[in-house]
Amino acid sequence: MTDHKERIIIFDTTLRDGEQSPGCSMNLEEKLRMARLLDRMGVDVIEAGFPVASQGDFEAVQKVAETVENAAVAGLCRAKKSDIEASAEALKSAKRPRIHTFISTSPLHMKYKLQMSPETVLDAIAESVSHARNFSDDVEWSAEDGSRTEDDFLCQAVETAIKAGATTINIPDTVGYAIPDEYAAKIALLFDRVPNIDKAVISVHCHNDLGLAVANSLAGVRAGARQIECTINGIGERAGNAALEEIVMILRTRHDLLPFDTDIDATLITKASRRLSTITGFNVQPNKAIVGANAFAHESGIHQDGMLKNAETYEIMTPESVGRKQSRLVLGKHSGRHAFVKKLEELGYELGDNALQDAFKRFKDLADRKKEVFDEDLVALVDDETGRDHERIKFVSLQIQAGSTGPQVAMLELGVDGEAKQAETEGNGPVDAIFLAIREIVPHDEAQLLLYQVHAVTGGTDAQAEVTVKLEENAKTVFGQSADVDVMVASCRAYIHALNKLLIKRERPARDVTP
Ligand code: KIV
Ligand code: ZN
Known about the structure:
Blueprint: E1 9-12, H1 28-41, E2 45-49, H2 55-67, E3 72-78, H3 81-90, E4 97-104, H4 107-114, H5 118-133, E5 139-144, H6 151-164, E6 168-173, H7 180-193, E7 201-206, H8 213-222, E8 227-230, H9 244-253, H10 269-280, H11 301-309, E9 329-331, H12 337-346, H13 353-369, E10 373-374, H14 375-385, E11 393-401, E12 408-416, E13 419-427, H15 430-441, E14 448-456, E15 465-473, E16 476-484, H16 487-507
Parallel strand pairs: 1-2, 1-8, 2-3, 3-4, 4-5, 5-6, 6-7, 7-8
Antiparallel strand pairs: 9-10, 11-12, 12-13, 14-15, 15-16
Zinc ion is lined by residues 17, 172, 174, 205, 207, 237.
């Protein structure tokens, strides 16, 4: 543990604000996989959901609370007794429950969204925070649209929340409108003018609409904030939240100017980024800082030459420091189960017996078809396998007839709720034929395919293709992903992955409340 004064509390909201991004919804099993990894990484607080929003959210917060060993677990709630009680109930088995309640404080939000007077908002703050304190000593209060709140009223609201028992005060830049100096001044103002400010930790929560979420968060820290709310890969409402990986690596790399520490194990960053992308099907852009595919690639001759002479010429942090390993040959078709398990452990995976069995079988198939099996191949293979046990639609087999003389035909067999079903369809190309075959077996006329994307996991003509598919039905979007050396099989599996998620979404009632 680092010295408290210089220590930044990392509050991860990937499972709440992050999950609110279009297409980023996660099922219970997926949220648990992410939560376990965040806990292992050393995140201080995991915001697991918004329990009153839906039964699914309630259960997710409940299960995350049961599972997480070290981090505090937070449940979001509006300034309403029923919301607070739902959060308290969902967090019952958490070792360290945190109730996070919020209300808007800007003139615009109070007038149009809440239709409440500033006085009534102050009453609601006092009541909600003191009600939350009946259930937990750890209560966070957020001033929604805080960055656009008038100074005097923000100070009054913060003082009221602390007086009522809030132990963390969060000042969100909800619409990503602030610029760093302005946001820092808002935080500094609280330290100057709120008499009981020393009784709470001040937190920043910045959205990225103008690309300033990380810069604003750090400006807030320099002004005295000691908690940063952020998400893996920066996912979140609209343009997203501040990216956890960027915050952590900036604090490490520029410790000379920003002498603050976190307890995050940065070597798990790549794994967390990769796991989230696989779960959500939401890939990060190649030039994304820290976790993008090109973040450590040196292409130009001058740069490569400099790197060979001294890596520090062009490298401000090493790929290894964020858990990136160079591609290297790891296993081949003669590798046994023991070596496979050992390699997975090295890559940070612990699989249960069934998942391990399936993963090993797929590894053997892969090694038969691909001469060199790299770490990236194994990661893609295992991520593809994990958490799909309970899916209703399962891939069984696929035969394709394709080529320049046509017609292109897909012969597909799926298991649907345990029953084998077949279809043979013609399409405009093999991918079209496959997707039509899936539609014939599992009709979903209202769903539209919004994205079909392929990229190679490694180099070489025998590389695995990683396919991402995005479907939309009644304004709900889902992503599916899969990897295979056969691009048609990967396409089929990715579509099935998305469709399984759509089936879950249909069963879940829509969120009828949003922050
Ligand atoms: O952006 C925001 O204002 C929020 C709050 C609910 C914390 O996410
Ligand atoms: Zn937010």
